[in-house]
């Protein structure tokens, strides 16, 4: 049995890095997928000219600082320097739009998934394909730029996602994992590639503009889990590790989106399993036996990292407004001369929320930090707290309303999937920042879906760990071994978790809250129009 230091020295460790919305995280694992090193870098998107973005300096500075943080952690723990890796993989928040020209320059600032300026494009493409094209998808962004007459479109030689861009820069290969690709353009579940029929429809749609490209020409090559995306080049190794210790030649697995790594991190890649990822945004995914019978604009069709069809209810808003309120309590403590412990603040407030009324005492919260397509709210963000004069307004109900709000739009989307489409769901797993305070968000999610919710002990590692597992699968898989088989047999065998079943009073209370929530949409719209 090798020690962690020996594993690292021998180049047997595997690295996964994920660009989340508020944090870049690196996870180093041993051959058994145990975490042996961690690195982080906090960052925030910027609202520039009305659009959410990160600069290239944000991206590369963040990646390099995250890797340096990992290196420092390994040096502190084991007294060794990382020089070789067995494999590496990169993932990031899905969707968005990064368009490049002939000199590989970024033609316009990166447009993230959070932007909702693409409504006309998404609606037109949805009608054309008879397939839901959400506003955040990369090709919705591309077509909106066409509708807006943007000059850069004729110069495009390549467009991709953030994870695809990182992998291209570090390997030289224009590739993308099928799960991340499913957030760019519809996937044909039989070929596990972009849908050729719809590509033809798009080319015909924009034919009148006489662009020098066809859609397929400017898209990345789609790969599935287990394939190799390339190797880390000398330039790529230097970009990642500015200290110069990391050697080139490391095998790189297909870049994935945070949806795919969430499925891996919760062992939710098998048919009829599902997971909820709750952080800055929140989304639920259920792996399906077959595609949905009807078109629902609230539900996306994506895939697992190995190409199986997945129904996704994705909401732009989850914890941003909740975190903003928690920060108010931190500021209050600071003004009182008390050094705040953020973990304790979250724990106290979240657990106190469980003492509130099941319907939040008729206190209502909207967490719309940005637009929310699932509920048809496509304007700018306007978080609101609403109550009647006779509402039971106290700290417990206030916090419970904000926790309910973080999952309210998701519940509306999931109700369509489970109650209208009757999609089979045998297991629902929770992961992400909202679940860090043990048992609280898990209980509220169980009430929202009226089904048991499990949080695995490994769920706290999140998508970066899931990305490391995908890189590990690439180098460890046996002939014919599927991704679900690998996860069940070699990653999660013997893993423990906590399951919470819904309490009837919580289910009834959440449903009452949702009824009030739906009636309040005009209030939210009025707030947008008046500011």
Question: What labels would you give this structure?
Answer:
single chain, 531 residues, alpha+beta, five-stranded mixed beta sheet, globular
Number of helical runs? 17
Shape: globular
Mean pLDDT: 93
Instruction: Give the CA-CA distance, first to last residue.
Output: 63 Å
| Strand order in the largest sheet | 3-2-1-6-15
* Total beta strand runs: 24
Radius of gyration: 23 Å
> Low-confidence spans: pLDDT under 50, at least 5 residues?
none
Q: Largest sheet, described in full?
A: 5 strands, mixed
| Alpha-beta content class | alpha+beta
- Portion of residues in helices? 25-40%
Percent of residues in beta strands:
15-25%
Question: If you had to describe this structure to a student in words, what would you say it looks like?
Answer:
The protein has 531 residues and is an alpha+beta fold. Strands 3-2-1-6-15 form a five-stranded mixed sheet. The protein has a five-stranded mixed sheet with strand order 18-19-17-16-22. A hairpin with a 4-residue loop joins strand 10 (187-188) and strand 11 (193-194). Helix 3 packs across helix 4 (138-147) and helix 11 packs across helix 12. The longest helix has 26 residues, at 395-420. 50% of the residues are buried.
């Amino acid at each position: 049995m090798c020690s962690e230091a020996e594993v690292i020295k021998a180049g047997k460790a595997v690295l996964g890095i994920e660009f989340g919305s508020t944090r870049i995280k690196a996870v180093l694992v041993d051959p058994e997928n145990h975490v042996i090193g961690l690195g982080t870098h906090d960052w925030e998107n910027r609202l520039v000219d009305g659009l959410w973005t990160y600069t290239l300096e944000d991206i590369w500075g963040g990646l390099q600082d995250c890797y340096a943080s990992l290196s420092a952690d390994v040096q502190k723990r084991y007294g060794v320097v990382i020089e070789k890796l067995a494999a590496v993989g990169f993932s990031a928040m899905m969707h968005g739009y990064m368009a490049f020209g002939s000199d590989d320059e970024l033609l316009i600032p990166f447009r993230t998934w959070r932007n909702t300026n693409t409504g006309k494009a998404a609606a037109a493409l949805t009608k054309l394909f008879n397939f839901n094209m959400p506003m955040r998808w990369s090709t919705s962004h591309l077509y909106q730029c066409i509708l807006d007459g943007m000059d850069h479109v004729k110069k495009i030689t390549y467009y991709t996602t953030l994870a695809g861009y990182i992998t291209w820069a570090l390997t030289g290969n224009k590739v993308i994992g099928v799960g991340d690709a499913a957030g760019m353009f519809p996937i044909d579940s039989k070929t596990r590639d972009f849908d050729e029929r719809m590509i033809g429809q798009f080319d015909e749609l924009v034919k009148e503009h006489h662009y020098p490209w066809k859609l397929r020409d400017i898209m990345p090559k789609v790969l599935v889990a287990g394939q190799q995306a390339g190797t880390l080049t000398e330039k790529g190794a230097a970009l990642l590790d500015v200290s110069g210790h990391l050697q080139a030649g490391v095998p790189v697995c297909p870049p994935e989106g945070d949806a795919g790594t969430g499925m891996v991190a919760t062992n939710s890649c098998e048919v009829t399993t599902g997971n909820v990822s709750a952080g800055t945004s929140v989304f639920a995914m259920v792996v399906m036996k077959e595609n949905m019978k009807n078109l629902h604009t609230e539900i996306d069709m994506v895939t697992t990292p190995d190409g199986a069809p997945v129904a996704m209810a994705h909401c732009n808003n989850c914890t941003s407004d909740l975190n903003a309120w928690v920060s108010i309590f931190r500021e209050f403590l600071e003004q009182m001369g008390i050094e705040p412990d953020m973990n304790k603040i979250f724990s106290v407030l979240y657990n106190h929320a469980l003492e509130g009324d099941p319907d939040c005492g008729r206190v209502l919260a909207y967490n719309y930090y940005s637009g929310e397509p699932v509920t048809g709210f496509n304007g700018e963000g306007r978080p609101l707290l609403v109550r009647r004069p006779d509402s039971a307004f106290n700290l417990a109900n206030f916090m419970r309303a904000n926790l309910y709000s973080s999952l309210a739009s998701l519940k509306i989307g999931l109700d369509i999937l489970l109650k209208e489409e009757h999609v089979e769901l045998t297991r629902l797993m929770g992961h992400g920042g909202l679940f860090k305070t043990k048992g609280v968000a898990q209980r509220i999610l169980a009430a929202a879906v009226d089904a048991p919710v499990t949080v695995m002990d490994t769920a706290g590692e999140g998508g970066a760990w899931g990305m490391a597992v995908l890189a590990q699968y690439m180098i460890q898989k046996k002939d014919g071994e599927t991704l679900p088989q690998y996860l069940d047999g070699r990653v999660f065998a013997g893993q423990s978790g906590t399951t919470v079943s819904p309490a009837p009073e919580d289910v009834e209370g959440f449903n009452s809250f949702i009824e009030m929530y739906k009636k309040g949409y005009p209030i939210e719209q009025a707030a947008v129009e008046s500011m």
